[in-house]
Amino acid sequence: MSWDCGFKYLFALSPTLKAGVMCKLQERDDIGRIELVQKLARENCQFLQTDRKEQEKPEQPDDEVTTLQVKEEDGTVLVFKKVSSYGPAPTSGSARTDWRYVVVSGTPEKILEHLLNDLHLEEVQDKETETLLDDFLLTYTVFMTTDDLCQALLRHYSAKKYQGKEENSDVPRRKRKVLHLVSQWIGLYKDWLPEDEHSKMFLKTIYRNVLDDIYEYPVLEKELKELQKILGMHRRHTVDEYSPHKKNKALFHQFSLKENWLQHRGTVGETEEIFCHVYLTEHSYISVKAGVSSTAQEILKIVAGKLQHAQDDLALVAVTFSGEKHELQPNDLAISKSLELSSRIYVYRKDLSETLSPLVESEESQQRSLRILGMNTWDLAMELMNFDWSLFNSIHEQELIYFTFSRQGSSENTVNLSLLLQRCNEVQLWVATEILLCSQLCKRVQLVKKFIKIAAHCKAQRNLNSFFAIVMGLNTASVSRLSQTWEKIPGKFKKLFSELESLTDPSLNHKAYRDAFKKMKPPKIPFMPLLLKDVTFIHEGNKTFLDNLVNFEKLHMIADTVRSLRHCRNNQFGGEVSPKDHQELRSYVHHLHVIDNQQVLFELSHRIEPRA
Prior knowledge:
The protein is α+β, with helices and mostly antiparallel strands. It is built from 24 helices and 15 strands.
């Protein structure tokens, strides 16, 4: 039977298949090319040809968007879009374009069903199917809870019949597909698997089901071994959760963006690390990255080293917003105590009941602020890279999605991402603080030159997060107004800074930065605020649901942007600094002294260079 490409076709499922299902194809194409139609044909579908129209319409261009809708009794449940793609292995001398269909929108259940239908169990996964699977696993929390996903997978695994009819040989294949998806899901989240009863119960249940099926379907043996390995990893994860040797990984908690867009994590994990601000004055603090379980003595040791004061002369005091003071004892859990009292932590001199002030123009203060001048700029940039990499490498891709979709309290489930964003802000303030605390013009000129060199090294080391932060710090209004300082900067440094500034130019959607970053080989650290801006732009410019169907095109765009993290982390970064200076540099970079108040920075700026 010949099929004319000018026809429209309706094809309905045979009575042996699920009743009430119809597909409508809206296009002009050779029906033999359409993968979905071929599948339906293999499943005994009946194809009904409509009457030929008297006059055919003009040929449509090949790139015209065509759609395929899958309808059930309640209405449309799945929408596909036809796109062109070159086959993986075209015949020699042939440039013929192949057509494929990608999911545009659908119900969560039908998207999952289509994904399982399309999965391949061969060693090499089809690229489009692999992308669809990854899109789904990265974004499923937007339109369904983890419990919904677990229950749906159990239904697909245990269903006696599938789509009304199924050959016996297809049953184990379907079960293997479900187990493959489970394996990919757990592999993607690894240590981030929530300590959630639903997830644990799901894993135990599906494991028992596989054990029951292994005798009837020996082909499941490979998946059983994989599941045993996964369950073993999961058990170790629960034991190691509180190990003091656990790597820097903030705890991930079960959440659903579909229900209320937020679910509290509950108590903060003992091994979780956060930035603790130890205030010297009302607007000046030292940033300390420490575990939630750190004692006051441990934090005081860090602060004393930074201030070059004897630890025995200092004390930590939690000051509530009402003005009450509570001196922290050496073994007090400093961070927990400050959270409990809703207060700030200040460092005090025991013999003087007042806050240590970095703004006092003493010789000691000047020496502290000028320590950076004696440091090697490349090694300092390398230590900044090591610190930023430890934060960046700990960010889970899901954090970007949760950060974008959650409208309230997003930091509760984006701990590592929030740390890196905070670090970017602190590096910017650190640059301004160091320069503005230096009252000597000649030393201040040296500091500006030093920071320009450090920014250049950060770019060379592909740490764009610190690079942007340092350039923005030098461009802070309180620093850029120092005309006497900038006039004395040598011409070659001004030229270098101008070249570095051009990479931060926001025109044409940060084209200069994007082009340069694309050429950089991994490992590399992106400017995270811009990456978040891209994800937010996609989110706010597109609806999440279209006619009560999940807008999967939008989720694919978001997942594609989020996946850029993988490319950046393709290789591990292994920067080393000279052992001689390592400890001092590490301590300096880990505990930055910051004045977090623009008004105070402006006052300092006008003090060292009054307005003419």
